[in-house]
Every structure is written in structure tokens, then in C-alpha cells.
Amino acid sequence: MASVGTQVYSADYNSVQVKVRTILGDGYPYGYGTSYPDYGYGVSLLSGPVINSREYSTSTVTADISTGSYILTLTDVTGFKIGKTINANGIISYSTITYVNLSSNAVTISNSTTSVISSGSQIDAYYNSSILITKKQWQDLEDDINTINKHQSNGNFSGYGVVTGKVTVANLTALNTVINNLTLSRNTVDAAQLTLDPSIGSKTIPYAWGGIGNKGIESTANLIFNSAKEMQYFFNQGGEISFGGIASIAVTAQDIAWYNLLNNIFVNTSARFTRTEFSRTGAIPIQWYQVVDGNPPYEINSITITAQVISNILIFTVTFRDGHVPLGGNPTDIVADGAGYNVYRKKAVGAFTGIQPTATLSNFKVV
Q1: Both 69 and 175 in a single domain?
Q2: Cα angle vertex 47, ends 45, 51, to 5°?
């Protein structure tokens, strides 16, 4: 970090920008080389890393170097910053040059090659020189942070704008605090930034079912994303998939039991699939939801939903199980046609356009 009161250079700016990218963008946390599941909204950024300029200097070997470290004097070192690492380049591609005393233009070179570096060889050395960032680069970074803040708390921060185009350490320190807090709250979403769409798919049973020998019936709901990574972004944005019952006609006692299970219990027990449930889901189906009637003689009638992920498809299997055995083995105590379920999608809105998976539902089949 630059000293207090000085202007901010690209190296310090980039240290904040990569944190912004981690949350708003692709989910590759700063300091790590791989993606972490609960990072990343998958949104395009306005800001980007500022490419540093590269400064060169040269020196000539005055004697053969076979092993060990030698002090060399570099020329044209104007602008070299104390504390910056100087990396070997060119003919000594397997050697290292480290800082010793730049005030006297001296560096140490350690020969780690298998061959001798002969007298008269020229050494090219360079370092990446930080440059001042511009007002536009700073504003883009602020706008990206405001997008994150809007999504998380439905608000903006203010007071860190730059009028002169000269960004100071005080600006950067304040901004760094903001983004650190937003990192901690990355899985928080303001309710105003989410919307629940009408049903994106429904399926009903077009025939009477249940009874002896026909106790279970199921359907699959496939939620299709453009990619597996987009699926992760959907849930990181606060997206949810939920289910609601479609009740059949309540005529017989069996129908009434299923009417209550579908129309009341199923809906009111919140069959909501969120980032928490998604984090446990893989290629092997897991049961993440079940509701049981519990009222005799229909106490073991149940609705179960499993979930699994195959590539870019999130697969739900919805099973209605009619465990009731009619008195006297009467097979006519079955469920009327028309029972089923709806699929709902909650997606991000406001700060950015949320991801919208599509749904395809299969016909019910006896299991």
C-alpha cells in the first residue's frame, strides 16, 4: 500500500478490484487459484485490472559466472521503486535477480542454470512499474461496488468519489473497508432485489391413482441452465426454486386427505430449494424435502422431492406416495385425477438482471 497522503497506484488499486471481481464476477477469490462455490454473482464488471508499465535495465557480465551469487550494476534505473522485485529475463531465463541496494543500482544475480554464463553476456532485467489510476477507472470501481451493495442491502455508499482524478490512499482505504464488509455479506440479498415469477411449469395426474398395487407416482422437473457455473451463480444471487401443490377434487375421504396435503401442508411447509440445499447437491440424488400427512388413517401418505445435478441440469424428482391401505382391502379408495404440482422461480432483479433457468416437466408415472 502506498504511504498515507500519496496518490494511489495501480498495484494497490488492483488489490481492491480483484476483491470486487470475486463477488460480482466469476467467483475466484483473491489469494486463491480456484473458484469457491459461494463466491460470484456472474455479472459483467465495469472495472478491470490496470495493466502496469514495464521498465527495463541492463548489465553486462564482466567474468564467467558458473555458480553462486554476484553483484552486478544496472544502468538506466530511473523510477525503480525500492522494495520491488526485479525478475531476470532474456538470456538468463533460469536465473533469479533479487533486490540488494537499488540506491546504488546494485542487484544480486544467482546463477541457477546448468551452464556457465560467460563474460560479456548482457543481462536484461525488468520490473512492473505501478501507474496512477484515472478518475474513470476509479468511478468504474465505485459503480461495481454500488452494484454489489444495491443487491445486498438495496442501497449505495457515498462520499468516496473523486473529482480531480487523483485518488488518494484515504479514498482507497475507505473503499477497501466497504468491499471487505461486502465480502463477508456476499450471501445476503435484500428482499427488494428478488422477484418470484409465476409458475414456470406445472404437471397434473390425468387419471385416478393410488389404492392397492398403485401406491406411488412420480414426475421429474428439469431446471436447465446455460452452464454448470451459471447454475452456481443463480443460487449465489439469491435465486430459489420452490414447489406448490395442485389439489384434486375433494370428494372421498382419500381425496380430502390428499387435498389437504397438497393444498395446505405442501405449500405451507416451504418446499424452497435455496443455495443451502444446492450446496449439498451432486450427481447422486439427495432427498431435500418431505412432508407426511400424519393423520390416521392416511398418516403415511407423503410427498418427497429429491435433487441431483447432471452437468448444467438441476433435476428434481417429485414423488406422491399413497401409503394408505383401504379397510377390507377395498381397491376403490383411490385418489381422483387432477393432483399435481407447480414449479416457481425466484430470481435477482434491480441491481442486475438475474439468471432465469427454464423448466421441463415429465408426465407422472407409477413407481
Answers
A1: no
A2: 130
Distance CA(183)–CA(168), nearest Å, equals 23
Note whether 16 and 1 are within 8 A (CB). Answer: no
Cα-Cα-Cα-Cα torsion 296, 300, 302, 307, nearest 10 degrees, comes to 160
Question: Within this chain, do residues 82 and 178 fall inside the same structural domain, yes or no?
Answer: no
User: Which cell numbers hold the place of 174?
Assistant: 475507505
Task: Evaluate whether residue 311 is within a structural domain.
Answer: yes
197-255: pLDDT as tens digits? 989 999 999 988 876 655 789 999 999 999 999 999 999 999 999 999 998 777 888 88
* Contact present, 359 and 201 (Cβ < 8 Å): yes
Rounded CA-CA distance 367/18 in Å is 51
DSSP 231: H
N-terminal to C-terminal alpha carbon distance within the chain? 64
Could you give the 3-state DSSP secondary structure of residue 178?
helix
Same structural domain, 284 and 323: yes
* Structural domain ending residue among the three candidates 145, 172, 187: 187
pLDDT tens for 156-206 read 766 555 545 566 777 778 888 889 999 999 999 999 999 999 899 999 999
Amino acid identity for residue 55 in this structure: E
Distances (CA, A) of 176 to 3, 70, 170, 293: 15, 41, 10, 52
